[in-house]
Structure formats: structure tokens, C-alpha cells
Amino acid sequence: MPRLKPDTHRARRENILDAAFTCFARGGFHATTMQAICREAGISPGALYVYFDSKEALIAGLCERDRAEFAERFARLAEAPDFLEALAAIGEHYFVAESHEKQRFVVEMGVEATRNPRIAEIFMGVDKYCSASFEALFQRLKDEGRIAPNVDIPTLAKVFSVLGDGMFWRRAIEPKADMRSVLPVIIEMVGALLNPTDELPVAHKAAAFEVRR
Predict the structure, then answer these.
(1) Are 49 and 60 in contact (CB under 8 A)?
(2) Strand, helix or coil at 33?
(3) Which of 83, 134, 137, 212 is the most exposed place for a label (fewest CB within 10 A)?
């Protein structure tokens, strides 16, 4: 069998992950079979197993894809002159624009993580990565004098995660929930916890000037 070009290999892998996501979001982890994923992807079982040898491996692939997307968005957030404005934009994506299927998938994986040690390792790995990223950012903002929170940074990051989890869960179980009206209130609460100052490092002042021009 000729070796696939990297772009073709990547496209086939993404197609399988898309099919797995659709099946998991629709039927849950246990009800979804590898055969169902093959049918959704339009491929044979042999082709599927070239890329993923189990449902857990598919979950790992989906979670890694989500982590990579988060890392890209987070990098822009970390460099934004107006942190709260940039945070609101990320919130708009994850809590308003993102599909209900995605919300249900994440909730399903969270529940499965309480029963399946391998899923727990995968799921909590991404969760810890996201939490650690925000904790490091909050510490950086404090060190730069841009925020002056009244609680310690680890606690601040934990509260931030709990608020985000609550919004995520609410939208997953109530698809018609109006998160767009709730989001500004959440951002205001986060702002009160962070207690932003008027001080900006020189680099961020220059960036803000460029944005205003």
C-alpha cells in the first residue's frame, strides 16, 4: 500500500475524529460502537484501526484537538491589552457560539471520567492544562501590576474554573439558556475578583495604542 501524503493522512484522521465526535455526542460513550463510527466516517474497520485502536484513543484525539484549539485562543488572550474584553470574546465562543453537541460531548466525557480511569486521565489532563494556563496568566498579570486580587492566585483560578464549568453545564442541559445575557455579569464578577489596575507594561501600552489607531 503506497504511503499517504501528510495532508491526506491528516484529513483522514480529522474525518474519523469528526465522525467519532458526532457519534459520541449523539449516543454517548457506551452506546457508541466502533462500527457506528466507521459508518459515520464512511470507512472500513480496518481503515479506522490504522488511526485509532479504541474508543479511548478516539477520545484522546478529540481532547487533544480541543486542547490545541484552546492553546491558540489562550495565546491571543494572554497578549491582549484589555484582558477582560478578550476574556469576554473567549466566553462568547465557548458559552454562546459553540454548538450544543459540543457541550453535550464534554459533559458526557466528564461523567464517563468518573467511571473510566483511562477517560479520567485524558479528560482531566486537558482540564488541568486549561486551569494551569489561567493560573499562570493571573500570576503574570499580578506580577506585572495589572491586577490586584484580594485572594491568592490558586484560589482565584479555581473560582474562575467553577464559574466557567457552571455556564458550560447550564448550556449543555438547557440548550435554550440565554448565555449571552449571563456572560457580561460573569465577566463583571471575574473583573471584581481580579481587581484590574490602570497600570500596563510598556509593551501592552504600545499594543493598546496600535489597536486604537
Answers:
(1) no
(2) coil
(3) 212
